[in-house]
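Dear Dr. H.,

I hope your travels went smoothly. While you were away I took the liberty of generating a structure for the chain from your last submission, since the lab meeting agenda had it listed for discussion. I wanted you to have the full record in hand beforehand rather than looking at slides cold. The sequence, exactly as received, is reproduced here:
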Amino acid sequence: MNLRCTFSAAALLAASAFSQHANASLIIEANYTGISGQSVQVTHNSANSTVQAGLLQFNLRPNTDLSVLPFDVTGMSVDAFCVEFTQGVQSGWQSYGLVETSEVFSATQSQAIERLYTAYHPVVGDATSNAAFQLALWEIVHETSSSWDLQSGNFRVSSNGTARSLASGWLASLDSIESQFSLYVLTNANSQNQLVFSGVSLDTPTPVPAPATIGLFGLGALWLLRRRKS
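The corresponding predicted structure, in token form, is as follows:
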């Protein structure tokens, strides 16, 4: 069965081996199992659709070697959000190439997606926040105007004011957020592309003490040592 992207749906990781597909990406397999979200009315390229916007769940192949993935995965299931309107998602076990967002989107889009995840992935989980994250993601990926506005431009949302308002607030805050994660996309020539939502990798190095702090600590220790000798 071929599910339209506007019905949301996604596919995710079950890795087996490296290949030459999509810049030597990993080839992974996954089986779509369901979605948690809300129904919304959207307009894309002047075409109106009623869609299910939300978080999609996928099972991995039982024999998947999780150690070859570039991030940690707990259990044998993963979550994803749809990023492609122009193609349906194939149900059943499908093979996808796993690539970084920078290989699929422009630098501006990739950075905005990483900032969106950094700031708001902790609050995603209920139907409204799932729908809001999906709407914000679709806006970043499909809007062609110079600003993100869910009520005007190439991609618009005309229903479900709660999720739309939440997504609009998130989009308005992105410029002030510093990305802390590297994100990945599942690509397939015959099935819609998906943003990996679970198991992403932290992109920020572990903080180290500033040189001035280390210097003050060293001087204090030296002063205590001299007091003990006197």
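Two observations you may find useful: The CA atoms of residues 45 and 154 lie 6 Å apart. Confidence is low (pLDDT under 50) at residues 1-24, 204-230.

With kind regards,
E. W.
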